[in-house]
Amino acid sequence: MARFWEESGRAMSAYMRPRESGAKTSTGAEQIADIVKTLGQVAERWLAEPARVAEAQRAFASGFLDLWAGTLRRFSGEAPEPLVRPDPKDQRFRDPEWSENPVFDFLKQAYLHASRWAERMVEEADELDPHTRHKAAFYVKLLSNAASPSNFVPTNPELIRETLASKGENLVRGMRMLAEDIAAGQGDLRIRQTDPTGFEVGRNLALSPGKVVYRNELFELIQYSPATELVRTRPVVIVPPWINKFYILDLTPEKSMIKWCVEQGLTIFCVSWVNPDARHAQKSFEQYMREGIMQAVDVAREICAVEKVDTVGYCVGGTLLAITLAYMAGTKDERIASATFMTAQVDFTDAGDLKVFVDEEQVAAVEAHMAQTGYLEGARMANAFNMIRSNDLIWPYVVNNYLKGKAPFPFDLLYWNSDATRMPAANHSFYLRGCYLYNDLAEGRMEIGGKTLDLKKVTTPTYNLATREDHIAPARSVFLGAQLFGGPARFVLAGSGHIAGVVNPPARMKYQHWVGEEPRGTLADWLAKAEEKPGSWWPDWRAWLAASDATMVPARTPGEGPYPALEDAPGSYVKVKA
Fold first, then answer.
1. Are 395 and 148 spatial neighbours (Cβ–Cβ below 8 Å)?
2. Hey, which residues are catalytic here?
3. C-alpha 173: how far from chain center
4. Would you call 484 exposed, middle or buried from its count of C-beta atoms within 10 A (0-12, 13-18, 19+)?
5. How far is CA 9 from CA 3, 17, 132, 176, 360, in A?
6. Helix or strand holding residue 107 (H, E)
7. In angstroms, rounded to a whole number, what is the distance separating the alpha carbons of residues 325 and 239?
8. Nearest-angstrom CA–CA distance, 105 and 100
9. pTM for the structure as a whole
10. pLDDT by residue (tens digit) across 475-526?
11. Which of 39, 221, 274, 484 could form a disulfide with 455 if both were Cys (CB 3.0 to 4.6 A apart)?
């Protein structure tokens, strides 16, 4: 216990030191205020109808009485049916004692009963506007996840056994890691999800050979070395999101989409966005379009001596690509022959739980914060993504790291996930308002470079990939957006989520994908008629590309054309830490 309190003191010092020096101010007040305000609106709706409140209280109390009666029967040796069961996918209550021990079974069921009752209170709060209801449901889920008995030593049988067996050594180790993680976050907790010493970009991640052939203030352009003697005539320019780093597409050789594409005879160029700082504060969405995508397309065209290129946009990189296509359609610019959108949204009507963080008050608060620094810290975006899946990305690591005292295993995907990037103020403000808040692109109101954008004017063929369990770009949202383009559109639905569904090498034969007619109507109707196929969607996409251009030319060596090599892939920008 003495060692535990000593390590606790170090953790507190790591938290207070930057605040006492003025290097960091207390954060989170705006989020807490919004939670209180939102849940207060739910309470107001219920208190306006006392009879409904009484009925809800009766249902709540009745459930607890039934649970208590069942627990007493268990102590008597009976085996009554549980009042409430956890979701089969819920990993928190896997330990047998949660079901076999009447005490822990009572704690588990009491928690589940209370949390589901709270969720029903939000669902049945009449007259709440949709955004407030969405926020309230999200916050209730967030708070109930935090309150789970699995997150506390006295109420978790596995943690009790661990603590008794090690005489509290697990808590000492955990508190030591907590102090280290607060120090690593410069006063804020940066939960380690993997062993950060196990990976390094350029050493065991992002290993596909290539050269940086162009660089400006916003991006480096990497041309990858060919793996075949002949390559497809039209090159492919990949536009990754700037919210994350590009090497998710070149994680390890066995998982690398870029390596697979090169082996399929494609000439691949990939944008590696700068990790911006205060110097990039005024870099706008239009500049990301002109100095980013358009410049990358021109460099690829010159190097390959072609009139047109094929493009791929991932996540927000796909949103930028769609905006670029709409602008080019309005100016009769035909440099892009096709566009592939990987889990990218252009219609933000059903944009999922990220919309919880977007309303006028919250966007204004983010803009005020960015005005002070010139950018949004990567940690704030990472925290938002983690909060969406707190039962997967927060609490398992809190329990494992700080209560069990076990360091997480090395995992390349989680290393990439923690390798955060910043967002420049002007660009991010435009994105939040024009896409999430007002949905201007889908509604035909967005203006870029003096042009009002109309996606129906985009006649470029598109390949639209959604993933079935995506929590960032929900499949329904991607499906709606795919219908807005004016040209031929192929829609494919992959199994799994935003990352695993996209980065799914064919050799692994994991998950599945669905193909069908052009996207029309609802996703449910489309899926009912679609054909399910095993494994990766990559070969389907490669065949789609081949259908538009199957001609071949001798392989191009990076750096031998009009743009000499500046340095080896993966370049310098990707190595900058936030």
1. yes
2. 315
3. 30
4. buried
5. 10, 12, 40, 10, 40
6. helix 102-123
7. 13
8. 7
9. 0.93
10. 999 999 999 999 999 999 999 999 999 999 999 999 999 999 999 999 999 9
11. 484
